Amino acid sequence: MTLLIHWLIMPTMDLQDWLKQEHGRQAALARHLGIKPPQVADWISRDKPIPLVHMAAIEVFTEGAVTRRDMRPEDFAHIWPELADTTATDLVRSVRASMNQPQTSET
């Protein structure tokens, strides 16, 4: 599944939740980023913020399950203007909202 499609259809996810889904993810992420696991632990305990420099790599490592948009919802558009396309944002919100709503049929 491409990152764009995954991003469009998957609900938002917190890094902490993603890491808890499978044993060993925290250590694997740390290895991928070239850092020590306690640094990742600081992020998931929210003792320290996730550094911007690692966010794109986290998005790729999680195959889009945790996005830069998820990690910085208030200011992602200022940091990564290429993610701020309002049409794409509206589409994502619409798809995610429809996934969380019961389906009804109009007659």
Properties at a glance:
107 residues, 8 helices
Number of DSSP helices? 8
Structural class: mainly alpha
* Biggest sheet character: none
Based on the coordinates given, report the CATH architecture: Orthogonal Bundle
The count of DSSP E runs of length 2 or more, i.e. the number of strands, is 0
Number of domains: 1
Write the CATH fold name.
434 Repressor (Amino-terminal Domain)
Reading off the top of the CATH hierarchy, the class is best stated as Mainly Alpha
CATH superfamily: lambda repressor-like DNA-binding domains
Written as H for each helix and E for each strand, in order along the chain, the element string is: HHHHHHHH
**What is the helix content?**
55-70%
Regions with little confidence, pLDDT below 50 for 5+ residues: none
- Tell me the distance between the termini: 34 Å
Percent range for β-strand residues: under 5%
Q: Determine the oligomeric state from the structure.
A: single chain
Shape summary:
globular
Q: Provide mean pLDDT, rounded.
A: 79
Q: Which value, in Å, is the CA radius of gyration?
A: 15 Å
